[in-house]
Amino acid sequence: LWRLSSSYLVSDVPSIQRSLVQHVEYTLARRRYKFDRGSFYQATAHSVRDRLIERWTDTQQFYASRDGKRMYYLSLEFLVGRSMGNAVSNLGLRGAYAEALRQLGYDLEDIMSQEKEPALGNGGLGRLASCFLDTLATLNYPAWGYGIRYKYGMFEQRLVNGKQVEFPDYWLTYGNPWEVERLDVKYLVRLYGEVKTYEDEQTGETRFRWEGGEVVVAVAYDTPIPGYGTYNTNNMRLWSSKPSHEFDLASFNAGDYYGAVEAKERCESITSVLYPSDDTDSGKVLRLKQQFFFVSATLQDVLRRYKKRIVPGRTLKNLPEKVAIQLNDTHPSISIPELMRLLLDDEMLPWDEAWDITTRTFGYTNHTILPEALEKWQVPMMEELLPRHMQIIYEINHRFLQQVEDRWPGDNEKMRAMSIIEESTPKMVRMAHLAMVGSHVVNGVAEIHTRLVKSRLFPEFDQMFPGRIKNVTNGVTPRRWILQANPAMAGIFTSILGPGWVNDLRRLATLKPFAHDDTFQHSWNEAKRLNKERLALWVKANMGVDLMTNAIYDMQVKRIHEYKRQLLNVLGIVHRYAVIAGSTPEQRARMLPRVCVIAGKAAPGYEVAKKIIQLACAVSKAVNNDVRCAGVLQVVFIPNFNVSLAELIIPASDVSQHISTAGMEASGTGNMKFVMNGGLIVGTADGANIEIARAVGEDNLFCFGATADEVAALRNTMKSRLPAGDERLQRSVRMIRSGVFGNPDDFSQLMDNIEPANDYYLIAHDFPGYLDALDMADAAYLHQPSWTARTIRAACSMWEFSSDRTIKEYADKVWQMEPLPFKPPH
Ligand code: 26M
Q: Which terms are listed as keywords in the entry (predicted)?
């Protein structure tokens, strides 16, 4: 068998074409047919998949044969985006596939656009997880992603009468050629039930066993994650829930047919839908079920793999030497009591040993300090769903509070503040405290954010566990965010540097001396123009709007949230509109033409965010239909922002806005993507903006607004001493309130919220500085050769924001893990 299967697929053009035709005939079962692009996409995907699978199974076999340390990235979200472009480029087969398709009368780009992207994440946190998987494979780290295979991903956003309407995203309609269903890899997951106590026959100690309740089956779906320029291909394992057979029998025998069917449906519903909120904790029991379901299956899988390798003298005590588990926010933090339960109740380890293993295995990444986003679970809910875990959490807390008492004797205030249990009615489990106590490293995602985690979120913990909180600034993968998204610019880099820059972004720095070179500038500007035209074409085809391409492209694309201040952007646009409307045709002819792009989804229940979208659409309509704005200003709200649209939008930008109220955006990762693609930032001193400014030069980031420390002070003084309003802001508010953009009642709440007494996000406070920053950017842009030089130098200074740097830092500071490159057999 081995000899028969040990030959590898050939990937020259004729071989690829044969494989395409075979898949059309035998996989899609279509013959003598003129097939549409959708079917041809399917055939191409299967052909590419075959080539991934060889490398994937080889890599996994190789990892199994070595005794390296492995890392598991646990995340409720992976925002993978489309796979085909990534796969052909990471395999080094883009040229071959393009040619094979061309000869058959198809265009690779066009075929790739047929792919429906899996949207198994909300935004930054989920996309970060996917960038990390790309880098982990590229750098040959033996690492897997674990998550949930939601049937319905992030909702599809449509604009109906200028308002967001959500539609379900059933992304599996035409199947998913990138995954392999592993019907043989399945685990039982228990929910509800009760805890039985019994006496250990040998030691006489009291032991616990969790029994009864409902048992659900977790089935594995694996997706290969190819590295760029390496043979290593990692795995992303997503779990899907199915009813279990045991469970069937019990219910059906009880004679309640309908009840039994209903219960089966409930099992499948666990992995039905992604929660579409990235800013508030819903506290819903189904969400807790999702978390526990995927954590339980994952830990069983991880322990099974660890135990399969038999090494003399090795026990579970050695687990942290061979396994690192990273928790992507608190969402998978039920892992901590679950691993404790497995070690205590199944493996019969004493508490201290189990706790030592657990804390040395886990690392926890914090992505927010916003109180409303911090996960808490009601104790009564947890007691019912996970009774044994609740006992264990109480025990963890009890022992932890003893340590607090030792450190600060008699300080009840410290105990109350640090306790894992919040003494409210009902009592709540604070998952961030649990994750903090149960991990050996806790990291923030940008320098300022880590500083705030230490000073505001966990000050007492930072004293108690000095050095446990570390910073690892986020990064994004240059494979997707430069090479794939911006072929025009990537082509320039490759023509000068060869392809090596893609996994060594430092090399771009050697181009900085050419920033003023005429030919270099010319091709750089050509690339930007091409990217604007590419976007304009899409906007025309999908929205019917003719965008100017000779304009400055000013963009803000990200989830819609009050703290991200899309409202500040819209108010700035209204101000610009007022200025245009009040000027003479001669004055207008001298203005810098501008295209403003806004895109992003609001959580379905977040009314204020939805109103902001409505206002943006209303302003867009008024501006685009006003002849006075023709050739001067256009505004578009692009619907259904997702990874594929980001790849189209970002490379077309000249300036992008990252204007959160300082201290509120943990890092941001869009900011990095824009600068890498030859755009500059208008932004606040928040998140990774601060580090980006340091890397590209402070004068290349148009910074404004209160700093994080000032924000805190301002919020306290504002209510007593109201600042004088800015005349320009007041005029914009008056326009909105007077109905220039439709029924003012729709926007009265938004306008009330920015009255000085209510202005929690400091929109009014930062407005003048914001306009100044935009003016600075415009002035800089008008000086074209120097603008081009700035964008070149900035883009070529971004190496530290490659997720390659980020992952090396995690490997070093958190995982203590080495690469394990696999040398191909041919
Ligand atoms: C929580 C409870 C119930 C349902 C959903 C959630 C939830 C889901 C996603 C909460 C937060 C979620 O994501 C938060 C997020 O995306 N944070 C962003 O993380 C990025 C990567 O670190 C940072 O760059 C952003 O600044 C940060 O906002």
A: Allosteric enzyme, Carbohydrate metabolism, Glycosyltransferase, Pyridoxal phosphate, Transferase
Query: Quick one: three-class SS letters along 345-386?
Result: HHCCCCHHHHHHHHHHHEEEECCCCCHHHCCEEEHHHHHHHC
Query: Do 328 and 73 meet the contact criterion of CB atoms below 8 Å apart?
Result: yes
**Cβ < 6 A, ligand 1 pocket:** 122-125, 128, 275, 277-278, 281-282, 287, 367-368, 373, 375, 445, 474, 665-669, 687
Closest CA to 604 of 312, 223, 144, 274: 274
Q: Which domains does the chain have, with CATH numbers?
A: 66-81+117-469 (3.40.50.2000), 479-801 (3.40.50.2000)
Nearest CA to ligand 1 atom 12: 278
Residue having the nearest C-alpha atom to atom 15 of ligand 1: 125
284 Cα nearest atom in ligand 1: 3
Q: What is the dihedral of CA 111, 116, 117, 120, to 10 degrees?
A: -160
Q: Which of 183, 59, 75 is nearest to 128 (CA)?
A: 75
Q: What is the pLDDT of residues 706-724, one digit of tens each?
A: 999 999 999 887 665 666 7
- Highest mean pLDDT range out of 133-142, 194-203, 255-264, 279-288? 133-142
33-37, 128-132, 145-149, 261-265: segment of lowest average pLDDT: 33-37
Atom of ligand 1 nearest to the CA of 474: 22
Query: Which residues make beta-bridge pairs with 186?
Result: 219
The 10 Å CB-count burial string (b at 16+, else e) for 43-69 is bbbbbbbebbebbbebbbebbeeeeeb
CA distance 461 to 458: 5
How many whole angstroms from 366 Cα to the centroid of ligand 1?
Answer: 9
CA of 805 to the centre of ligand 1 (A): 21
Entry pTM: 0.97
Treating both helix axes as pointing N-terminal to C-terminal, what angle do 763-782 and 566-581 enclose, rounded to 10 degrees? 60
Backbone angles phi, psi at 620, to 5 degrees: -55, -45
* Pocket perturbation via mutation, ligand 1, pick of 150, 278, 378 by most ligand atoms within 8 A of CB: 278
Joined tokens for residue 696: 């590209």
pLDDT tens-digit map of 395-438: 999 999 999 999 999 999 999 999 999 999 999 999 999 999 99
| pLDDT over 80 (residue 285) | yes
pLDDT in the model for residue 501: 98
Interval between CA 325 and ligand 1 midpoint (Å) = 19
The residue contributing the CA closest to ligand 1 atom 11 is: 278
Rounded distance, CA 555 to CA 650, Å? 8
pLDDT at 354 over 80: yes
Helix, strand, coil shares, percent, the chain, to 5: 55, 15, 30
Q: Which active-site residues does the annotation give?
A: 367, 558-559, 564, 669, 673
Cβ neighbours of 655 (radius 10 Å): 24
Handedness of CA 52, 129, 86, 277 (dihedral sign): positive
Closest approach atom of ligand 1 to CA 281: 2
Q: What percent of the chain has pLDDT over 90?
A: 91
Report the separation in Å between the CA atom of 76 and the middle of ligand 1, taken as the mean of its atom positions: 10
Looking at ligand 1, which residue's alpha carbon is closest to its atom 6? 278
Stretch 338-358: mean pLDDT: 98
SS3 587: helix
Write the pLDDT tens digit of every residue in 64-74. Answer: 999 999 999 99
Dihedral angle computed from the Cα positions of residues 227, 233, 235 and 236, in that order, rounded to the nearest 10 degrees: 30
Cα gap 630→593, rounded to integer Å: 9
Cα angle: 584, vertex 587, 591; to 5 degrees: 135
CA of 500 to the centre of ligand 1 (A): 33
Bond preceding residue 276 cis, omega within 30 of 0: no
56-100: per-residue pLDDT in tens? 999 999 999 999 999 999 999 999 999 999 999 999 999 999 999
Which of 241-255, 352-366, 723-737, 799-813 shows the lowest mean pLDDT across its residues? 241-255
> By alpha-carbon position, which residue is closest to atom 10 of ligand 1?
278
